[in-house]
Design brief:
This protein is of the alpha+beta class and 315 residues long. The protein contains eight helices and 17 strands. It is globular and about 60 Å long.
Length: 315
Amino acid sequence: MKALTTTDFHFPGQKSVYHGKVRDVYDIDGDLLVMVATDRISAFDVILPKGIPFKGQILNQIAAKFLDSTSDICPNWKLATPDPMVTVGLRCEGFRVEMIIRSILTGSAWRAYQEGCRELCGVRLPDGMKENERFPEPIITPTTKADEGHDMNISREEIISSGLVGAEDYAVMEDYTRRLFARGQEIAARRGLILVDTKYEFGKRDGKVYLIDEIHTPDSSRYFYADGYEERLAQGQPQRQLSKEFVRQWLIEHNFMNEPGQVMPEITDSYALSVSDRYIELYEHITGEKFEKPCDDADLSARIEANVTRYLAQR
């Protein structure tokens, strides 16, 4: 099993590196970012102890396609993808919030709803909803962006009053969020999928708001199969889905939600490969293209370093 779980590159002009939960971001001359999508996987704000083969390539390639297909809606940070696991783009000052938009009551929102929650991030939720039922219209439920630990739900009013984001910039982010989500839903529908919910991150450069990071990947989004959705909803059956939620559910079944005293279950090679297969399935569904695996003897780190170094030298 080949999986890239750590990186230690030294690119030309490199000033610093930030190791995130799943991405390692290299600052080039304070102007560009080299974002390496590793094969690490996280759930409940903790990195799982085993990498998932091909996951980084899948996330990077899906995000690149959606960044290109939504560039008419808002500017984004992407400049190039010199390697299947790498995007190079403009360095922006990121806002410390994540814009989450939901069209269906499921996941963490459903778990909160079951416990009696009827207001989420300042948004009033209707009574009497069922799991996986559509909201009357998509709702935006932002969270704070934590470097470590849990992101926290926060309302629009709290974001602005605390100074996390100014009112004018927040209005732009909210508008972009709704328009990007609508485009993502349109693309998903053409592939027989429902884009259920997703998150967007934004930053600012030269006074302009940019879309940054990934977009519409299985790590940042949840997809249901459209076929059979209504029937399953009517019968109270679980939806067939393509997202990272199945990893969270597996952890829940093994008594792990990153709560005090809980122990991470063993991630076997066979389970890691089954997760990889699910990621490949989503890639092929959402893009309509066959996923091309790298050759078995590929040295991922050496390939990435060579490809990125070549791109930076040619700029």
